[in-house]
Amino acid sequence: MTPIRPATRADIPACARLVHDWERATGYIHDTPDLETLTGYILEAFPAREIHVCGDPVSGYLSIDPAEAKLGALYLAEPGKGTGTRLMDRAKDGRDQLWLTVYVPNIRAIGFYKREGFTTTAELPPDRAGAPAMLRMEWQR
Q1: What are phi and psi of 32, to 5 degrees?
Q2: Is the pTM of this model over 0.85?
């Protein structure tokens, strides 16, 4: 079992690759930024986020905005191997609540979040860029 560790700036391109590859594989996100742009977004957010990774090379990535208790990212190279649960345990550690948004077509993630104790609190409409509707989900200890 690969350990989970705080991300470093050197990990950010690998995190961006996980996001990029997932978005391109969905079939419902049509305006995926290029890797350089995604890397820039994550680097810009890096100082204000708690970012954890696992694997070498990075195979899992978690980002939390501690000011809002928002889980902003949970991406895995290979879902279904327990890494998501381990990263979620890290996200919950020391917190009483978290919230996130997830695309409605992402049935696998929605099921995972429900198993992790999240409940749906709102449905957000599709955006103008063509991305599908999202659910807001919340967890409380």
Answers
A1: -65, 125
A2: yes
